[in-house]
Amino acid sequence: RARTAIDPSRGLREGSLNYERSQNVESAARLAGELTKAGRHAEAIRICTDARTGLFEDDPKILLALGLAQFAAADYAAAIATLDYLRDKNPSFRSPDGHLVYARALEESGATARALEEYAALVKYYPGAEARVRQAMLHKKLGDKARADELFAAILDDARLAPKHFKRSEREWIELAKREHD
Questions:
Q1: Are 8 and 31 in contact (CB under 8 A)?
Q2: What is the pLDDT of residues 8-17, one digit of tens each?
């Protein structure tokens, strides 16, 4: 975190240099991730599209990076299609972050029933509070205040019992759950 605060473009510079040295799926996925973080979504999408050739057309890392970039660019339909394709071509591949983006893309595109299903599956293994908070917020948004309150209460109860490092790393989501629960 300190390095990022001191030199916020370091990851992008390193990713670009590594990609120049060796244009492979790994370096393309890393560079696309850095470009997405930097808000340069079109470039990230282009890098991913260029990397999807030959044997690597169905590579899960590059498909995930593409889906994340499409979501960040607010192209929710494309993100859903890419992540569906990823799941179809790589059924054993698991990515909690990819699954979260998939659920969020469904929600943003108006497929709220499917989004609720994905959130319900996701919260069983997602390693933080974000998925659970987003699930509760969607219930609240859809008018199911009782279910939302139940979920917010469970999040806050688990946070109360969690170790300090979890409370620190998930502070933003715990605070949001407190605000939404009140």
A1: no
A2: 677 777 877 8
